[in-house]
């Protein structure tokens, strides 16, 4: 019997707190060079420039896709070691993480719900009461910004 979980199974078994912390940890210790504006493209030397989603997936899959063209979805699933039948799931997950790193929980929740992963069940008022303001994480994100996401994860973890 094969006990190895697929990417989809891994992500669907994660709590919202675990998903958030995976994104945070993957940005603290990125697998690929961070450039939130390149959408997975590589330079002429094959160095992948990735976003929060790229690094989060690499963290979950424990892979570093060096020297791989990442701008095509089919290339990304190969680089991430994800079966082709999970392409749509991965695409929605990338979008969910991109929405999360933009601080837009509502959009993250939409895509999370669509693919059956944990949603973040806090209203804007609850976030305000907790004094958590999720910043948009760009190329110049700071540790303080990551700590806002970490505070959210800790609150969700109870």
Label this structure with key terms:
mainly alpha, two-stranded parallel ribbon, 8 helices, 2 strands, 53% helix, globular
Write the topology of this structure:
Layout: H1 7-12, H2 16-28, E1 33-34, E2 49-50, H3 52-61, H4 73-79, H5 87-101, H6 105-115, H7 124-129, H8 143-157
Parallel strand pairs: 1-2
Provide a descriptive summary of the structure in words.
The chain is mainly α and 158 residues long. It has one domain. Helix content is 53%, strand content 3%. It has helices spanning 7-12, 16-28, 52-61, 73-79, 87-101, 105-115, 124-129, 143-157; strands spanning 33-34, 49-50. Strands 1-2 form a two-stranded parallel ribbon. Helix 3 (52-61) crosses helix 5. The chain is globular, with a radius of gyration of 15 Å.
Short description:
The protein has helices spanning 7-12, 16-28, 52-61, 73-79, 87-101, 105-115, 124-129, 143-157, and strands at 33-34, 49-50.
């Amino acid at each position: 019997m094969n006990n190895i979980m697929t990417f989809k199974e891994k992500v669907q078994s994660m709590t919202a707190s675990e998903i958030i912390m995976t994104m945070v940890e993957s940005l603290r210790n990125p697998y690929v060079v961070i450039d939130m504006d390149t959408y997975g493209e590589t330079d002429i030397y094959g160095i992948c420039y990735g976003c929060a989603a790229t690094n989060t997936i690499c963290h979950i899959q424990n892979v570093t896709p060096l020297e791989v063209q990442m701008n095509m979805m089919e290339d990304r699933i190969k680089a991430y070691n994800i079966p082709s039948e999970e392409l749509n799931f991965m695409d929605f997950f990338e979008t969910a993480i991109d929405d999360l790193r933009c601080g837009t929980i509502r959009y993250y929740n939409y895509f999370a719900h669509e693919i059956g992963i944990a949603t973040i069940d806090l209203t804007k008022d609850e976030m305000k009461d907790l004094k958590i303001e999720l910043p948009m994480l760009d190329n110049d994100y700071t540790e303080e910004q990551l700590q806002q996401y970490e505070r959210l994860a800790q609150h969700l973890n109870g």
